[in-house]
């Protein structure tokens, strides 16, 4: 068994262990709804295809337009979740985003929480990023980038964002991949205004895949992302109403749910995920942030793996596996008398 396969196997064992912990899953009792109940088309209506039962939707990107949807309401703190299956085959330059934002209302002081899939070259591991902005702090984005341990185009997986006054957690299935604990030092950089849920597919050839090296190829169009099992809990508000809404009951509900806390098994899975699959962290990017942002928890052993730019020093498990294979192939050629004659 290759080292890469072994690492993935160990990680899957930890994931299974997390599901066998104090609770079977953080998402067994979610309230789900149809598209009509809480969502609306955002753009590219002809490329937004709802299922006959209205429980799922397909977002398409072709050479003319992408597509997207938005929640019908805005929420002051909430839990946003969907089962998603990404486009298959060659999808370089194609971004599928599942995120919250209030940019349409607060254009200069917007908040945002992102899960963005960054396109894929067939046969390569899928890459994606999470990010957060508060109060229009786009120069102080807090990106982390990762590889997935599975092919997200083969079947549906659940992607979720929890946002409360005290913490933010990004989930992939039952694995918490990132937790941000609010600190007073973050100030307005912590998202604090009501946000809507968005999902989009669009052409980001200029930056998404290997920094724009690989572009969208419409020979493979239409690119299709599928969404189902929508779940959305939070305090529905009008962001510009004069009388504030009391959202304390909603926050209390959110913080009482399984997805609002991380048990010991899930924390071990999160630590393993970040060790094996995170390849960029803004917390270790001292070129960009000479002083790490206040919410960063600097782990010396983890820091040693990253350059001053926040990227992995040695390219991670995937690069190590390629180097090992090259050494093995070279050794086989050198030890084969017939090959030496070539």
TrEMBL record:
One of its GO terms (cellular component) is apoplast. PROSITE patterns: GH16_2, PROKAR_LIPOPROTEIN. Keywords: Apoplast, Cell wall, Cell wall biogenesis/degradation, Disulfide bond, Glycosidase, Hydrolase, Secreted, Signal, Transferase. It comes from Eruca vesicaria subsp. sativa. Belongs to the glycosyl hydrolase 16 family. Catalyzes xyloglucan endohydrolysis (XEH) and/or endotransglycosylation (XET). Cleaves and religates xyloglucan polymers, an essential constituent of the primary cell wall, and thereby participates in cell wall construction of growing tissues. This is Xyloglucan endotransglucosylase/hydrolase. It is found in: Secreted, Cell wall; Secreted, Extracellular space, Apoplast. It is an enzyme of class 2 (transferase). Residues 4-227 form the GH16 domain. Pfam families: Glyco_hydro_16, XET_C. Contains at least one intrachain disulfide bond essential for its enzymatic activity. Residues 1-26 form the signal peptide. The active site is at residues 112, 116. GO terms for biological process: cell wall organization. GO terms for molecular function: hydrolase activity, acting on glycosyl bonds; xyloglucan:xyloglucosyl transferase activity. It comes from the Eukaryota. Residues 309-342 are annotated as: Disordered. InterPro entries: Beta-glucanase-like (IPR000757), Beta-glucanase/XTH (IPR044791), ConA-like_dom_sf (IPR013320), XET_C (IPR010713), XTH (IPR016455). Its EC number is 2.4.1.207. Residues 329-342 have a biased composition (Basic and acidic residues).
